[in-house]
């Protein structure tokens, strides 16, 4: 049994670092939402405040799982571990759960408009799908052990 490792190309590292930074922005957004100061809450419009305060715990939990597992998955890519893929799959599933609430249950589109309520979730889902296939490619090519 050989334990040889195939060195990934430079673009693998570039994509992995960019993906980590993307997910860290998600963690930042989650923390901002989770620890929103009362002053900022009071500065929101009535519709924004109702949307924020009415978000169910399962949607908030999906948000947390999505961004933290995405970050862990990207760290796994950088340390070249195969378990990055199932972690990134969990992040993607959590993102889909969160955005199913945002797009189909809440009135986010009415409150924030199409760009914030539709374009950004679609972008997040597409990046999540890409990262799952990126990790699969890393496994197939022997870059992840």
Describe this structure in words.
This is Sugar transporter. It comes from Croceitalea rosinachiae. Keywords: Membrane, Transmembrane, Transmembrane helix. It is built from 7 helices and no strands. The mean pLDDT is about 95. Helix 5 runs antiparallel to helix 7. With about 140 residues, the chain is mainly alpha-helical. It has one domain. Helices cover about 80% and strands about 0% of the residues. About 25% of the residues are buried. The radius of gyration is 18 Å and the shape is elongated.
- Broad shape: elongated
How would a crystallographer describe the biggest sheet? none
Task: Give the strand content.
Answer: under 5%
Could you tell me the radius of gyration in angstroms? 18 Å
**How many strands appear in the DSSP assignment?**
0
Uncertain segments: none
- Strand/helix succession: HHHHHHH
Number of helices: 7
Distance between the termini: 14 Å
Mean of residue pLDDT?
93
As for the number of domains, it is 1
How helical, in percent, are the residues? over 70%
Find the structural class using helix and strand composition: mainly alpha
Summarize this entry quickly:
The protein has 145 residues and is an all-alpha fold. The chain contains 7 helices and no strands. It has one domain.
Any key phrases for this structure?
single chain, 145 residues, mainly alpha, 7 helices, 79% helix, 0% strand, transmembrane, transmembrane helix, membrane
Fold topology:
Layout: H1 10-34, H2 38-43, H3 46-53, H4 57-78, H5 84-105, H6 108-112, H7 114-140
């Amino acid at each position: 049994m050989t334990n040889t490792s195939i060195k990934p190309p430079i673009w693998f590292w570039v994509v992995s670092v960019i993906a980590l930074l993307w997910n860290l922005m998600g963690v930042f957004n989650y923390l901002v939402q989770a620890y929103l100061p009362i002053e900022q809450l009071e500065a929101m419009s009535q519709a924004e405040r109702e949307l924020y305060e009415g978000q169910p715990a399962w949607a908030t939990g999906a948000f947390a799982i999505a961004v933290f597992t995405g970050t862990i998955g990207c760290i796994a890519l950088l340390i070249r571990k195969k378990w990055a893929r199932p972690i990134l799959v969990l992040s993607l599933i959590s993102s889909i759960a969160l955005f199913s609430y945002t797009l189909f249950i809440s009135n986010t589109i009415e409150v924030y408009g199409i760009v914030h309520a539709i374009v950004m979730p679609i972008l997040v889902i597409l990046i999540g799908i890409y990262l799952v296939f990126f990790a699969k490619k890393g496994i197939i090519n022997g870059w992840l052990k």
